[in-house]
Amino acid sequence: MKNFNYSIPTKIFFGRDQINVLGDQIKKYGSKVLLVYGGGSIKKSGLYEKVVDIFNKNNIIFWELPGVEPNPRITSVRKGAEICKQNHIDIILAVGGGSSIDCSKVIGAAACYDGEPWDLVIDPRKIKKVLPIASILTLAATGSEMDAGAVITNLETNQKLGTGHKDMAPKFSILDPTNTFTVPKSQTAAGTADIMSHIFEVYFNNTKGVYLQDRMAEALLKTCINYGSKAMENPEDYEARSNLMWASSLAINGLLTYGKETKWSVHPMEHELSAFYDITHGVGLAILTPHWMKYVLNDHTLNKFVEYGVNVWNIDENLDKYEIAHKSIEETKKFFISLGIPSTLREVGIEEESLEKMANQSTVRGSIGNFLPLDSKDILNIYKAAL
Amino acid sequence: MKNFNYSIPTKIFFGRDQINVLGDQIKKYGSKVLLVYGGGSIKKSGLYEKVVDIFNKNNIIFWELPGVEPNPRITSVRKGAEICKQNHIDIILAVGGGSSIDCSKVIGAAACYDGEPWDLVIDPRKIKKVLPIASILTLAATGSEMDAGAVITNLETNQKLGTGHKDMAPKFSILDPTNTFTVPKSQTAAGTADIMSHIFEVYFNNTKGVYLQDRMAEALLKTCINYGSKAMENPEDYEARSNLMWASSLAINGLLTYGKETKWSVHPMEHELSAFYDITHGVGLAILTPHWMKYVLNDHTLNKFVEYGVNVWNIDENLDKYEIAHKSIEETKKFFISLGIPSTLREVGIEEESLEKMANQSTVRGSIGNFLPLDSKDILNIYKAAL
Questions:
Q1: Domain spans of chain A?
Q2: Could you give the ipTM of this predicted complex?
Q3: Most exposed among A189, A337, A355, B172, judged by the fewest C-beta atoms under 10 Å?
């Protein structure tokens, strides 16, 4: 186990009607709010109206940035930062999924920065100050509600990059599972795949002596496997929605990473798919994951796959190790298919022509992953296998 | 899953040599420290000297409260509070296990209270303010390093009671597993039993829909089972010591409880044993736990024991449910015996004569537990079975 410093400052208000804390929590930071959200779903569900009601009752003035894209764009960040600067915004409230929250985080940093916001994505060290961020979560997926990272897309340069700063972690997040009752099946599936992928990124890892962290990771993986399809079959299954929602936060808030040396693999590979084709992030992850697993399986990584197969998928531990490993990968793929997620790149409109370009771009910051480091040639092979 | 508000404010500095952060962290709160510790073990190990060195280098003035008892007494709290009041102490640093930390927490509250410190144990609502608390942990057991509770013994009244306040949670705790290398075998065993008991208290529970929390609890139980005897066999096994140490904190920092309605059972029963006989807390817990399990096993609680047996002890899920349950209890008992912990009350000098008195006293605040609520008659039966 590696040394680590644990600090998870985000307060979580979890459960039905927790929106009731909103007024008091916001007023701790001021009275001028930038409200950030995506398409119209929060208006359809009535959540928008509830928020506005609370603002009015508490004399909170607000500005709006609607229309944040599913892969949030730097153009939205620029707009939001302008509003913050012009109106001396005190706190940014994202109402939505990871896209709105990620966008808000970088808006918060850009509002305190004099230069071009994209600088802060390319080089997180330039982030010195961030406006307070808060969120009301409506989609269990990215975990952005409880972590300090954000991913922003620049369509001008075909780049989708992660950035982060400790002060980007939301001051508080309201997690009411009923706010995810209206999430469509396909997004529920993609969200579940995203949560699982966050766990895989740190579970498939070489740090020794992290038994506790690995059992925790398996606990969360089993939660996703147990509830993913239940939430799809019965969108108002509170038990399923609440377990998935809490799993989304715990998967990425640091708990599974503390004590490990981590470097992600499948996310940076997927970011290129989304950057070039604007596909749903979780879908890209689900397509790539089994192929990534097959590619990195070797004599050195074998035992980790055996652990995964036995502990997560209950595969008979007396089988041959490679048989267990292959079965575990097969189960992973079958699970994503059972959620109705496409299993090939072609199904989501990605053809061979751009694979090489994407593979090259995914390694502009160097090789990816540390379970088995991958260069652009490796990534191209994985993309091809996933076609 | 129940509604919950998540907030775990304690910062953890985990790993080798993390004591290096001590000076900077203390100075965030002031320059006058009350140093609280137990017997001489921190002097033997050299830890005391390291702390004093850092204090001197950082111009930190300190007062000392040595000799805190294994079941910390209200008399020590009184002494500590007096020192704080007279010298305008800024922060209390506990160096030791749960006893020193618990004692420090109540000293911190008593230092801000004009009346008799025992009031604050009997009625936690009287706690309005607490001096900042910090800790350097030397024993993986109580989890006091990351929670907001404390247990204090009053030998004048033969009472051992829990109290708590959100501001009692340490501002920071330094968890260096090498500081537990010198913990004797018997204390390592008792500490492991204590961690497991904290988990049992919330795992054996009736709240519905808490799959995630239960899998997390199992992850931590497996960690204790995997490393308890390893740490005893090889006291300098860093992997074992670090996993146990981190498990001790996560078992009780709220993570396993959020979303559940919990009310403890075995701890309040054990507190009477320690209050009357001053025995090691973890030993009392290990003796009582299997008997408590047998006593509360019935048609309503059966499924939880099956879950426990299958998921934690790998008992064949195809067996008869009661067979699984009984086997799981047997495994629990065998595990504690394998750690060299006595398995009967008589072995630790407790005879039948005081059982009734203790059973009555354990329920002065009402019935205990909510998995199966127990009155004094039930508790007497469990004590008798454990004789």
A1: 11-179, 185-386
A2: 0.95
A3: A337
